[in-house]
Amino acid sequence: LTVGRQVAEVCAYMATFPPPMQAALELWLDDHGFAEIATTLALADADAARALVRAGQARLRDRFRGRAPLFA
Question: How many helices (H) and strands (E) does the chain have?
Answer without folding.
Answer: 4, 0
